[in-house]
Amino acid sequence: MKHFLCSWSGGKDSCFAFYKALQLGYKPTVLLNVMNEFGDRSRSHGITKPILEAQANALSLPIHFFSSTWKDYEENYIKNLNLLVESYELSHAVFGDIDIESHRAWEEKVSKSANLKAVLPLWQGDRKQLVLDMIDTGLEAIIVSCNQDLGAEFLGRTIDASIIETFESMGVDACGENGEYHTLVVNAPFFKNRIHVEVIKKSVSSNYNFAELGLVDD
Q1: Angle at 121 between CA 119 and CA 131, to 5 degrees
Q2: Can you tell me the mean pLDDT for 110-124?
Q3: Which of 71, 120, 132, 175 could covalently link to 127 via disulfide, CB atoms 3.0 to 4.6 Å apart?
Q4: CA dihedral for 9, 171, 155, 139, sign (positive or negative)
Q5: Where is the Diphthamide synthase domain (predicted)?
């Protein structure tokens, strides 16, 4: 059995890569998320730990967190991959990157350092088609951060076919692969329950817009 850990941002790409890995016959074992140096929200998407834990619960999987600055990111990532290999039966690490070669090279490098094989199920997919496929699969994702080309009014909006058309009319990449926006998956066919969140407030940091989210009780 090919047991994998999933590099989990909480967003659409890592979630769709997780789903594609399932289809390829890999067995999910644990999620891995990197928090900022303060440990209060994820390094990449700015999502709080309780929301990421709610996603893990919806997948019936454990989630492993560690905090890091960007400076120590690689060292800490390798260290935690090795910790997970010691704790779980793992052979592969799944990542959601699509076509940025430097990202793939880094993921293969760190995985190899922990005797894991990197798997990128979305690799070389057409960016727009991948998003449409995610939507068709039933992934429900909302925008939790975005650049100023989009603006704060896009925070909290659901990724659907119409918003993809809007992105394209604005010259924004449909998938946000260049960092134009990041998402949070709130529901998927393979979740045992939906994640209910609300936008509490919006903020700007380093010319980037962030939604502060809160969990809503069912």
Answers
A1: 145
A2: 96
A3: 175
A4: negative
A5: 7-212
Question: What is the pLDDT at residue 70?
Answer: 87
Q: What local confidence, expressed as pLDDT, does residue 45 receive? A: 82
Domain 127-215 classified CATH 3.20.20.370?
Answer: no
Domain residues of the chain, as ranges? 3-119, 127-215
Query: What's the CA gap between 89 and 141, in Å, rounded?
Result: 30
Q: Which CATH architecture has domain 3-119?
A: 3-Layer(aba) Sandwich (3.40)
Closest CA to 205 of 147, 143, 153: 147
Tell me the mean pLDDT in the region 7-21. 96
User: Looking at residue 196, what DSSP letter applies?
Assistant: P
- Mean pLDDT, rounded, for 122-132: 92
| Residue 190 tokens, joined | 């393979």
pLDDT on residue 38: 85
Percent with pLDDT over 70 in the chain: 100
Reported in sequence order, the residue ranges of the chain that DSSP labels E, i.e. its strands, are 3-7, 27-35, 63-67, 92-94, 117-119, 140-147, 181-187, 197-205, 208-215
